[in-house]
Amino acid sequence: MIRFAENAKLVNSSIGFVPTMGALHAGHLSLIEAAKRESDLVVVSVFVNPTQFNNASDLDKYPRTFDSDRSLLEDSGVDVMFFPSVEEIYPAGTEDQRKFELDGLDELMEGPNRPGHFNGVVQVVTRLFDLVEPTKAFFGEKDFQQLAIIKHMSSKLGYRIDIVGCDTVRESDGLAMSSRNVRLTSSGRTIAPEIHRTLEALRNELRTSSIEEGLARAKAALLASPEIELEYLELVDPITLKRATDDSISIQGCIAAWIDDVRLIDNMRVK
Ligand code: PAF
């Protein structure tokens, strides 16, 4: 990987980088298509990063579909599938982690609910950036807080990499594509689009109602489905990720919820 990156630099070729944890689906393919449009060469990494899982069973249950990922990447025409081992990414082991100051961007949402998660994400993404040396890196907006943190940390740590956010790809019923969706039962799969519908309803509601009223209605709608266990529903400023107020000009609605023991997240610009 290092030699490939060095050679690309020598001939002035730009590298578009799509970091993934595998179990590739149409959402990843849309990131790859964006990378192909905007770069000379495309590198896709497949690495299930242990340091970003605060829950050992979530790490164990994370789908690993190496063979189908490989054939999908072969068909999609990427130049490199980079699949390092844990030892290659973390030569000193995974226990003694480098600590990053995330400047409050992890105060809400995933931060308190998944302690250490974003530290692990920044740790692996910076390590991958150092190995791949991309010109541009592509991330899905489904992981809205992750994208905001990577944009902030990449510029704060001095990486000269263009961080490109790409639209969330959805199933026809609105469910955001995710590697976790395959773990839903068929009744869970039927109920899961309710998360997206709630965000759409909230966007309409906020045209005429206050944040407090909108949030109360949206939470009541989710509670009406006993299969959905809401972890959080937050309305935040899209850049600072601080809680929005009725005066906020832009507001991002972000949800995490459990269905069938599967943790799903989604978000939408609601104002
Ligand atoms: O979004 C993901 O799949 C992961 O968090 C990432 C960015 C590949 C880091 O492991």
The kinds of small molecule bound in this structure are:
pantoate
The pLDDT mean sits at 96
Determine the N-to-C terminus distance: 42 Å
Quaternary structure type: single chain
Radius of gyration: 19 Å
Provide the CATH topology of the largest domain: Rossmann fold
Strand order of the largest sheet: 3-2-1-4-5
Contiguous uncertain segments of 5+ residues: none
Q: How would you sum up the major sheet? A: 5 strands, parallel
Number of domains: 2
Strand content: 15-25%
Shape annotation: globular
Q: Tell me the number of helical segments per DSSP (H or I, 4 or more residues long).
A: 11
CATH architecture verdict of the largest domain? 3-Layer(aba) Sandwich
For the record, what is the CATH homologous superfamily label of the largest domain? HUPs
Structural class from helices and strands?
Answer: alpha/beta
At the first level of CATH, the class of the largest domain is Alpha Beta
Care to give the gist of this entry?
This protein has helices at residues 2-10, 26-38, 56-61, 66-76, 86-89, 110-113, 117-132, 144-156, 186-191, 194-205, 211-223; strands at residues 15-20, 41-46, 80-82, 136-140, 162-166, 229-236, 252-259, 262-269. The protein is α/β, with parallel strands linked by helices and 271 residues long. Helix 7 (117-132) crosses helix 8 and helix 10 (194-205) runs antiparallel to helix 11 (211-223).
